[in-house]
Amino acid sequence: MKKPFIYLKDVRPKNSQIQHWDNIPKAKWAPYKKIRSVTEIFNRSQKLPHNSPLAALERIHHRVKCQVERGEPVTPIDDIYNLVSHVDILRIGFAQVKNNRGALTPGSTSDTADDFTNRMLYELSYKLRTGTFEWNPIRRIYVPKPGKPEKRPLGLPDFQDKVVQAAMRIVLETIFEPIFEQ
Q: Most exposed residue of 40, 119, 148, 176, measured as fewest CB within 10 angstroms of its CB?
């Protein structure tokens, strides 16, 4: 039997103390595994607070789905950037990226999933909202191809960049999933 959805309130670090992710309660519906689709997230949740970014994503998803079913053109979605930069969406992105095989592989900096703290998540959200976030260069390595003497290039982004990419994927899936399901 699945546990009911529990929406967590803001978990801000107190007195600028760094808290490690393992000491912070996680949302029950965003376990450290891959969630196949945004619809699965919404089906697992029961009742979201009206002003939460997840409720806004659910409303966008429902609106686009209804417009597609009726054959109407999809109206433009405003404020996508604020949804991507919200701490709750970044937290879900972190939860989905944390247990990937490459989460402990450093990019051009030495940051990995183990080094990522709640404070760093809020700083990342602040950088995104103020426009000061900059993508770090990708570390390029060459791995051998099986059975061939050639090597193929492999790009390793920083963990912080992976979290932002996961948050962007969540928001964009919310919009485009109903369109491509038809």
A: 148
Rounded to whole angstroms, the Cα distance separating 136 from 160 reads 9
In three-state secondary structure terms, 154 is strand
* Amino acid residing at 12: R
CB burial readout 36-70, b (16+ within 10 A) else e: eebbebbebbeebeeeebbbbbbebbeebbeebee
| Residue 4 CA to its chain's centroid (Å) | 21
Whole-model pTM? 0.70
Which range among 80-89, 106-115, 130-139 shows the weakest confidence by mean pLDDT?
106-115
The confidence score (pLDDT) of residue 47 equals 58
Whether 180 shows a pLDDT value over 50: the answer reads: yes
Lowest mean pLDDT among 24-28, 57-61, 62-66: 24-28
Residue 68 CA to residue 178 CA, distance in Å, equals 7
Residue 18 — φ and ψ, nearest 5°?
-85, 125
How far is it, in rounded angstroms, from Cα 51 to Cα 41? 17
Coil, helix or strand for 140?
Answer: strand
Q: Report the SS3 class of residue 151.
A: strand
